[in-house]
């Protein structure tokens, strides 16, 4: 009997690479399909890597025919909220149209289980907080709308075909696994923790976008979740489907909000460096507060975040960046 396998699209990216490692540790053969869209590097001896677009039908067919694929975990997407406002076409093309091609290929090859990387961006401006799954979906950016559209398609597929899915709506992914050389390496980097660490390291000014929000200190509040906790939810989501449970959507977050000012203060305290802060205007598409109510994932998937303490998140992200820089320097001087 051929080893159970999972196909991980976007497995050379930030969250997909951590999940690929966990799935390999859980005994799955892991196939990563990623086109290395931002020239990122991936050192993942625990996985089979295929460098291609996730909507290449011939490649998908080859994978589905040659491996015992139990499920597709679909991370591949364009992920920048602001870029999606400037050029929505490419966001709908990559995140929605191509996902339809992937789903079509799954149906053709009788691959039934799909785990989708959704986002809190599909809720839009929260009407209440913490946000639960029942909250109205009113995305304010093409990025958020693309996640909402795919979820709609998934519901229709699950109703019509022999097909089941779990959609995991992450809040803010953060942290790293430096011991495996896994962490954030987006190009350009738009996520706050890598930018904050860069500013601390290089003694560069750090911009806060918006200080007049309706929050206690005027800055946005976010729910930071360690990427290892997100990876675990994927494994549990697959178990949920394999046990014959129905398709469903779950929020993933800690339920604890941290303001941008609180995050900066924590980082300054941990690393003993004072930052030069610059106040900038609000960015379009940034709600004041995004905090998850993740009770449903806890009750149904038996998921618990274990690594999402802010100190641990910052330390692991910092250690990863330092390792990356040392590696770069070594390569520049020795190669
Ligand atoms: N990072 C977060 O905080 C966050 C929050 C909510 C949801 N998400 C979702 O989680 C998923 C992963 O996010 P991430 O932060 O790891 O992003 P990432 O950019 O690091 O990873 C995405 C990966 O997909 C690949 N990719 C994109 N389009 C592709 C294509 N057409 N063919 C093949 N590969 C392609 C990229 O090369 C990249 O490796 C995304 O779907 C994102 O929308 C992320």
Describe this structure in words.
The mean pLDDT is 95. Strand 1, helix 1 (14-25) and strand 2 form a beta-alpha-beta unit. The protein has a 7-stranded parallel beta sheet, with helices on both faces. It has 335 residues and is α/β, with parallel strands linked by helices. It has 2 domains: 4-174 and 224-252, NAD(P)-binding Rossmann-like Domain (Rossmann fold); 178-222 and 255-334, Alpha-Beta Complex (UDP-galactose 4-epimerase, domain 1), CATH 3.90.25. 41% of the residues lie in helices and 19% in strands. The site of nicotinamide-adenine-dinucleotide has 25 residues, from helix 1, helix 4, strand 5 and strand 7.
- Round the Cα radius of gyration to an integer and report it: 20 Å
* Averaged pLDDT: 95
Helix content: 40-55%
CATH architecture of the largest domain: 3-Layer(aba) Sandwich
* Strand order within the widest beta sheet: 3-2-1-4-5-6-11
Strand content: 15-25%
Number of strands: 14
CATH superfamily of the largest domain: NAD(P)-binding Rossmann-like Domain
How many discrete structural domains?
Answer: 2
* Helix and strand sequence: EHEEHEHHEHEEHEEEHEEHEEHH
Biggest sheet descriptor: 7 strands, parallel
Stretches with pLDDT under 50, minimum 5 residues? none
Bound molecules: nicotinamide-adenine-dinucleotide
Cα(first) to Cα(last) distance is: 44 Å
The CATH topology of the largest domain comes to: Rossmann fold
Shape: globular
């Amino acid at each position: 009997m051929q080893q159970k396998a999972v196909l991980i699209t976007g497995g050379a990216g930030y969250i997909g690479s951590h999940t690929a490692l966990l799935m390999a540790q859980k005994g799955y053969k892991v196939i990563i399909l990623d086109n290395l869209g931002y020239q990122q590097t991936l050192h993942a001896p625990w996985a089979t890597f295929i460098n291609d677009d996730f909507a290449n039908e011939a490649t998908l067919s080859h994978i589905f025919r040659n491996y015992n694929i139990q499920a597709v975990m679909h991370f591949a997407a364009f992920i920048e909220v602001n870029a999606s406002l400037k050029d929505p076409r490419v966001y709908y093309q990559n995140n929605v149209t191509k996902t339809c091609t992937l789903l079509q290929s799954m149906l053709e090859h009788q691959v039934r289980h799909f785990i989708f990387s959704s986002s809190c961006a599909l809720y839009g401006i929260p009407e209440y907080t913490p946000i639960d799954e029942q909250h109205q979906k009113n995305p304010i950016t093409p990025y958020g709308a693309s996640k909402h559209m795919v979820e709609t398609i998934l519901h229709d597929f699950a109703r019509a075909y022999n097909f089941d899915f779990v959609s995991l709506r992450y809040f803010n992914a953060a942290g790293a696994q430096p011991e495996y050389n896994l962490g954030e390496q987006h190009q350009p980097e738009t996520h706050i923790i890598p930018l904050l660490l860069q500013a601390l390291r290089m003694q560069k000014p750090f911009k806060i976008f918006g200080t007049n929000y309706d929050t206690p200190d005027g800055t946005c509040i976010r729910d930071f979740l360690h990427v290892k906790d997100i990876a675990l939810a994927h494994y549990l989501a697959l178990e949920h489907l394999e046990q014959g449970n129905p398709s469903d959507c779950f929020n993933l977050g800690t339920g604890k909000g941290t303001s941008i000012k609180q995050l900066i203060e924590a980082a300054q305290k941990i690393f003993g460096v004072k930052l030069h802060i610059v106040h900038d205007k609000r960015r379009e598409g940034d709600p004041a507060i995004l905090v998850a109510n993740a009770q449903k994932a806890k009750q149904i998937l038996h998921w618990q975040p274990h690594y999402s303490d802010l100190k641990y998140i910052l330390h692991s992200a910092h250690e990863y960046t330092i390792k990356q820089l040392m590696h770069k320097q070594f390569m520049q001087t020795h190669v």
